[in-house]
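Methods — Computational structure assignment.
A single polypeptide chain was analysed. Its primary sequence is given first, followed by the predicted tertiary structure written as structure tokens.
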Amino acid sequence: MKKKIVKWVSVILLFLISIISLYPFYTMVIMSTYKTEDIFKGIPFLPGSYFLENLSVVMESSFIRPYINSLFVSAFAVIGCVVVSSMAGYALTVYKFKYRNAMLKFVLMTMMVPTQIGVIGYMIEMRSMHLNRTIWPMILIWLASGFGVYWMTQFTEGALPIELVECARIDGCNELKIYAKIMLPCIKPGIVTLALLIFLWSWNSYMTPLVLATNKDLYTIPVFIQTLSNAYQTNYGAQLAGLVLATVPLVVLFVIGSKNFIKGLTAGAVKG
């Protein structure tokens, strides 16, 4: 009897938490169907009839270019971060070299430093490399991810048996083959989890593209949506419609990778 009560209480609590979590998203979708003037009259519960008009404002404002920019930045940020972080995780797990623990602590310390502190220096660095007028600064910044390196190291330590690596070496495998054919399949859930997180963070990043994008052709979606206004009024209805469109790739990716994402989080949380 007690188990049934606990089960039902857990289900009810999870249902309430889900409702609370999804309510802001539902509100955003509903408010995108109203005029800006109507939004300030109160938070509506039922959809309006102005979504197509708001959508047309978004599309007439060259929405496709920032959308493609965001896809390009997020896709290459994911690829770069996963490759660099997984290689670093492999090295820090397999090779027991001097100052390894100190290096891990340093990586952990970099996660405590706000990104805003280094943006100006990074911008100067990109200018010296003649990349300041391109989209690459918004991608390269994700390659040096302290979180990615630490996450891959922790996950690899729990998912990759050292004995398997040693057996592969005895059989004549070089380090690149061990990395590609043994390590990567073992840490697939961790890779999917990191990829989804980096895609989410790079897709939603506002401050970095705002500082690094030197012209409108380089704008990503968060920066572009902020420009949907004129000298007299901010078009909140159109901005919300743009946000609805911006969440579509995130929802699709989470639905596709949710199984491995959850598996990666649970495996990363319980080492050994």
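Note: The chain has a mean pLDDT of 84.
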